[in-house]
Amino acid sequence: MDDSTDVQSRQVEHRFKITRVGVTNVKKPIVVDRPTGKRTLNAIIDVYVDLPSDQKGSHMSRNVEVTSDLVDKTVREPVEGLENLAATMCKRLLKRHEYASYSEVDIRSDYFLEKTSPKGKSSLENYQIRAKAEGYRDREINKYIGVTVIGLTTCPCAMEGVREKLRKRYPDIAEELNEIPVITHNQRNKTTLMMEVPPEREVEVNDLIEIVENSLSSSTHEILKREDEAEVVIRAHENPKFVEDVVRDILSNILEKYEDFPDKTHMEVKSESEESIHKHNAMAERVTTFGKLRE
Amino acid sequence: MDDSTDVQSRQVEHRFKITRVGVTNVKKPIVVDRPTGKRTLNAIIDVYVDLPSDQKGSHMSRNVEVTSDLVDKTVREPVEGLENLAATMCKRLLKRHEYASYSEVDIRSDYFLEKTSPKGKSSLENYQIRAKAEGYRDREINKYIGVTVIGLTTCPCAMEGVREKLRKRYPDIAEELNEIPVITHNQRNKTTLMMEVPPEREVEVNDLIEIVENSLSSSTHEILKREDEAEVVIRAHENPKFVEDVVRDILSNILEKYEDFPDKTHMEVKSESEESIHKHNAMAERVTTFGKLRE
Amino acid sequence: MDDSTDVQSRQVEHRFKITRVGVTNVKKPIVVDRPTGKRTLNAIIDVYVDLPSDQKGSHMSRNVEVTSDLVDKTVREPVEGLENLAATMCKRLLKRHEYASYSEVDIRSDYFLEKTSPKGKSSLENYQIRAKAEGYRDREINKYIGVTVIGLTTCPCAMEGVREKLRKRYPDIAEELNEIPVITHNQRNKTTLMMEVPPEREVEVNDLIEIVENSLSSSTHEILKREDEAEVVIRAHENPKFVEDVVRDILSNILEKYEDFPDKTHMEVKSESEESIHKHNAMAERVTTFGKLRE
Amino acid sequence: MDDSTDVQSRQVEHRFKITRVGVTNVKKPIVVDRPTGKRTLNAIIDVYVDLPSDQKGSHMSRNVEVTSDLVDKTVREPVEGLENLAATMCKRLLKRHEYASYSEVDIRSDYFLEKTSPKGKSSLENYQIRAKAEGYRDREINKYIGVTVIGLTTCPCAMEGVREKLRKRYPDIAEELNEIPVITHNQRNKTTLMMEVPPEREVEVNDLIEIVENSLSSSTHEILKREDEAEVVIRAHENPKFVEDVVRDILSNILEKYEDFPDKTHMEVKSESEESIHKHNAMAERVTTFGKLRE
Questions:
Q1: Cross-chain residue pair B21–D284, CB shorter than 8 Å
Q2: What global pTM score does this model have?
Q3: C261-286: per-residue pLDDT in tens?
Q4: Between chains, do A278 and B183 touch, taking CB under 8 Å as contact?
Q5: Cβ atoms A137, A168 nearer than 8 A
Q6: Which of A62, A256, C67, D19 is found 20 to 30 A from A106 (Cα to Cα)?
C-alpha cells in the first residue's frame, strides 16, 4: 500500500494546525542503569507530534513503533536517565513524522529507593518519577526530570493557636509550653518538583527526592517501630511547615544545589496537603525559571 | 420486530447461568425529599439482573428504561429514601426481565449536610451516601443504606511513645505531661458504614453520619477560624483512636440506636486512615449481623 | 487576636513569590438558573491567590469563606453562569487577601441535558462542565467556560483498509462495497472544549455541547431501542473521524458561531479516544486564540 | 519496652471482634521467576489479620515487616508465583500476630507479555495480575490467582439490526449482506478472571490471559500496521460477543483446561464493556465454583 494514498494524507476540510496529536497511556517496562544497580520501571508513556494544517491525519502507529523500538532496547542496553530516553524518542519521532515540526514525550513511573528511619531501620520507599522531552527541528531538545514525594507536614498556625489555649488551661507550665512542641494537625502531603535539565548537565532523581524530603516537616517511612515512630512525630512537630514553606525551601535548595545552571532553566514546584481537619486540600505552587528566582 | 426472534433469545452455546448482568455507571440526578427540604443528588447507578443458563443475552436497554422512568419521576414526585427508590427499581426490573429471578440496584451520590463547628460556625459539609436493594421473585427485597464520612483520627500508640520521650527530655514537667494531650500523628480518615434496613423500619442517613462522626477522634469542618481550629485539634488529641476503635464505637452506637432491629440485620463498617507518617493506609473492617454483635 | 501577629504574617526565610496558593477539592452544591429551569450542580472548586515574597502564609480559611458566602447564596439567588460566579469570587478574593495581586477560581461539575435519539426517544444525558476565572488588581478578569462530552468516533483509516480486503474477498459486490459503510473499529471518545468568554459577551454551555456532539462521528445516548441503535451505528459509520478531525471541526464551528469574538479570545480543544483495538488512547489537541485560527 | 504494656494490649471498651485490620496500598517491587525469565513487578499489597474482641489494637508495623522481609528477599530468591508469596506471607502473619486466627494478603501488579498480531508483528502487551491468600490456624491456606485483560467486543445485537436496515437499503446485495460481517458498535472491554489454586496444583497466569483473550471478540495489540488493523477489525466482527458470551466462554474454557480441579474450586469472571454508543458500561459476572458449573 502506498503511503501517499493513505487516509491520513487526504484533503483536509478545515485547515487548522494541531498542537499535539499522538498516543497516551502506553504502558511499558523500562530498564534503567543507576549508580545503585539496574532496575525495571513500569512506565506510562505519552507520545505526541504536531500536525500541519494541510495534513489530514498523523500516523499514530509510528509513535508506538518508536516507543517499542527504543524502550524495548533498554532490556539489552539500559538507559541512564529517563529524560535522555525521552529526548532520543523525540528525535526519532521527528525523523518518522516528516510533516511534524515538534515532538513530545512524557514518561511517568513508580520508583523505589532505600531509605533509613531516624533509628536506622532501612526500608524501600515508593516515589513517582517523571521525565519529559520536547523536540524541535530547528533548535535543541528541552529535557525535564521530576519527582513526586509523599511526606508529612505539621501546621504552624494551629500549633500557635493551641499553645495559647494550653497556656491558659495549664498556667503552671505556661513557660514550658513555649519550649516543647505542642499538638497541631498534621497530614499526608504530596509534593511534586519538576525541573529542566540544561544541555550538557545532569540531574540525579535521588538528589531531587532528598531535596523534597528535607523541605517537608518530615519524610515518611514504611516501617516505624515504636521508638522510631515517636522520633518522627517529634521531629515533624519541631519543624512545622505551611505548604508555602515547603515550596520556598525546595526553591532555595534547588538554586543552591544547581547554582551553575543557566537563568532560563525552567522549574515547577507544587505541594499539596490532604488536610486532616478539613475535607479539602491545601496547595501551594511556583512555576518559574532560575533567573526569576535569582532576581 | 418480534422479541422472540431477537439475538438475546437465540441458542446459547455454553449453558451457564450469569450471576449479574446489566449496566454500570449510569449518571442521573435524583430529587429526594428530606425533613430538611428537597434536594437534588447527582447519582451514579448500577442496575443488574441475573440470567438463566438458557437465555443468550439480557435486554440491557430495559435496565436503563427502568432507571429513567423511575428516577426522572422524582423531579415531580421526590423520593423519601434512596433505598426505597432502589427497591422500587428492583421490583420493576423483575417485571421487565421475565427470565430473571434476581435484580440488584446500587446508587451512590455526593450528599451535603449543614454542620456546626465547636465555636458555632456553620458550614455545608460533604458526604457520600449509598443505597442498595436486592430483589427476588419469591421473597422480600433486601434494602441497604450507607454513608462515607471523612474525619480525623489521632494515633494513641504514638502519643504514648512521644509522652515517654518528652517526660525524659523535660523532667521538670513530667507529671503535667501525663495530663495534657501530647503530640502524635493524625490523619484524614475515611469511614464507611453500610447497614440493612429491615422491612417496616426506617434509617435516616443523617443519623448514620452523626454516629460515624461521633466515633472518630473528631469530625472535620470546611471553615475553621483560628479559635475553632485550636479547639478541633485539642478535642481530637483528647480522643485518640485506632481505626479498630472507630469501627468498634460505630458498631456499639448502631446497636444502641437501632436496638429493636432483628438479629439477621446485616452491617458493614470500614475505617481507613491515610497515615501521615507512612505512605500506606491503615484499615479496619467488620462485616457482620446484629445477632452476632449481640452474642 | 490581631491578624498582624499571626503566623502567616511572620518573617519569611526564603523570600520567593508563590504563584498560586489556596484550597483544592472543595465540594459544594451550586444552584444555577438556566433558560430551561433552575438546577443544582454538585461542584468541585479550587480557589487560589498568589503570595508576595515577603508574606509567610496565605489565609486559606478566607478562600473557603469566600466560597461559602457566594456559593451558598445561590440557593436564594441562583447564578446564571458558573463563569460569572467564578469571576465574582475572584473579585472578593482580592478584597479579602490584601497582599494578593492575582486570584483564580476553577469550578467543575456534572451536568445533565435532555437529548433526543435519532428515532425521537428523549433521555437525560450526562456531561461535565467547567468554569474558570482569573482576577487581577489592575486589569479585567479573564473568564472561561467549557464542556466535556462523551461521544463516539469511527476510524476512517481502518475502514479503508477493511474495504480493500472485503473487495478482494467478495469480488461480486466490489462496487457496492465502495458505497456502503463498512466495518471499522469505533470507540468511546471524550472531548473537552474550553474557551474564553470576552467581556460583555455570553457563551451558553448547551451550545458548546451541541457543537462538540455535531463534531463527533455520533453522539451517544443512554437509551437506544433496537431501531435507534442501528440508526446510531449507521450514522457513525457514514461519518468516520480521526480525533484530529473532531478537533478541527470544533474549531471551525466555534469560529463560525462566535464570529464577532475578538482575536485574543483563548480556546482549547482536546479529543481523546479510548481505542478499542489498542490498550492505549489516541489524542489530538489544539491550544490557540481566535486570531491565530483566523490567520 | 514490654509488648504486654503497649497501647494495643490495653483494655477494650466495646468488645467486638474485627474481621480484618491491617495496612493497604503498600507499594513494593517483587522479582518473579517465570519460564520466560526473571522479571520485576511493581506491586500494590494489602496485608490483614483479624483481631479478637479482647485485644484493643493490631500491631500494624508487623504487617509491613512481614511484607518487607518476604518481598525484599525476592531480589535474591525470586518467587515462582505471586499466590505462593501471598501464602508464605499469610503463614508468617499468623506467627507474628499470636492473637490472630485469620490472615489475608492481596497483591496486584501490572504485567507484560510478548504477543503476536495476526500478521506476525510482536509487541509487549500490558495486563494486570492479582494474587490472594487467606490463612487460618486450623486449616489449609486458600490461594487465588487472577488476571485483568483489556480486549475488544463487537455487539451481535446491533449487527443484526444494522443488517436488516442495510438489506432494505441495498436490495441488490441483500443476500451477500447475510454473509459479510456488517457494521456494529464495538468497544474497549475489561475482563477479570480470578480463580482458586487448589493445593498441590498450579495455574500459570499466561494461560489465564490466553483463555480470556480467546473468549473476546478479539485481543488488542499496541502496534497494528494497516494490514494488521484491517485483519483485527474483520476477525472481531466475524466474532461478535455480548459480555454474557465472554463470561460463558471463559467459564467453559477454564473448566476444560483445569478439568481435574476439585468441585469446591472457587472462580469469578467479570466482563465490562465501555459502550461506545452509550456513556455507561455493560457488565456481566459469574461468581461460582467448579462443582456448580459441572452440574
A1: yes
A2: 0.96
A3: 999 999 999 999 999 999 999 999 99
A4: no
A5: no
A6: A256
